[in-house]
Model the fold of this input.
Amino acid sequence: MEVFKLRFFFDAGSGICMWSANDNSKEKFGDYPIECNQLPISENLWRKLSYLTAWYDTCIDWSYPPNPTPWSTSECHRFNKEVLSVLNDVTRELGKEYIIQNEFKSVIVNS
Done:
């Protein structure tokens, strides 16, 4: 059985949260970044991934990115919880052929 390894993390401003992590996945999806709609998952699920990617971009203070997140503690918790829920759904839909390396770092409020 061919195994496709994917990395999951957000890269602010890239619009991507899935990345090829082995030769099989690079061969199947192209180079390194993977558009969510390329994954063999339901449309609703890839749209959720796209939504989370756009939502993540709002945790950055784009006027000066090193600044702490403008999000409240409750928004950080909501986002982090939703990410884990959607990632569980992605893992379930992709099945045993796919291994997802979860490299997501929770968003936290720094003062």
Summary: The two ends are 48 Å apart (CA to CA).
